[in-house]
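Lecture 7 notes: from sequence to structure.
We start with the chain below.
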Amino acid sequence: MTTTATTTKQFIISEQLLEHWQGHRNLTRRVIEMFPEKELFEFTIGGMRPFAKMAVELISMGGPALKGIVNKKEDAFDDETFNPKTKEELLKKWDEETGVINQYFSEITEERFQETFNLFGQYEFPVYQNILYFIDNEIHHRAQGFVYLRALGINPPFFWERF
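Predicted structure tokens for the same chain:
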């Protein structure tokens, strides 16, 4: 019997994953900007939360989670501390968290992406799966925002225009 050795090439490097995530964040930021101020904080459909609350969830997840991963600290999830009253305040915090994400993401070594981490003391998965969860969760909530915008008569940006 003959054995063949195979070399596996890496599919994506961490910088590309961060760029992909930040592309999604850029698009979500544009969605926030498109909302009229009042509707951003008050408009709902079918019992879903206003889009501002969804954005606060995303703000409360990415940066704090990466900081926890880097510091190996499993703090509980907290989306109650930041309570913006204006779109400007929400966007300012969004931009600040973009910097936090960039900082802590760059501190995760390639080896750490494979390590298991108990995110917020609730979700025990490899670090790369936690990061993919952040992206998936953002896409999910942004889609809800798209529905809200359409219900308000506003055409959302194309989902592929992330930069």
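Points to note: The CA atoms of residues 74 and 119 lie 6 Å apart. The first strand starts at residue 116 and ends at 119.
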